[in-house]
Specification:
The protein has a five-stranded mixed β-sheet with strand order 2-1-5-3-4. Strand 1 and strand 2 form a beta hairpin. 31% of the residues are buried. It is 13% helix and 21% strand. It contains two helices and five strands. It binds FE2/S2 (inorganic) cluster. FE2/S2 (inorganic) cluster (FES) binds next to loops.
Length: 107
Amino acid sequence: MTNITYVEASGQATTVSLPDGWNLMQGAIANGIEGILGECGGSCACATCHCYVDEARLGDLPPPSENELDMLANVAAERRPNSRLACQIKASPLLEGLMLQLPETQE
Ligand code: FES
């Protein structure tokens, strides 16, 4: 299990414990976190799971695929250097304690 903290645009922070291998969009939806839609179900085709990864931890994540980079060009909120798609990040011990800031809008 890996603890992930989601910080909604309102500032509400929620820490949840996810089974390793779950993607972080799936973890948000399963735990009622607002601010992630995940409309495509995690197939990297909608960009409604946009999040901002704690910059200090960016190096702990595998780099985004070409497909993810293409989808990040279509996010509704401001794209930042630490923008990622939550469905493309899998919970693992390396990500223990990771914090994700959620944007104000996903559509
Ligand atoms: S859920 Fe659609 S791109 Fe992540």
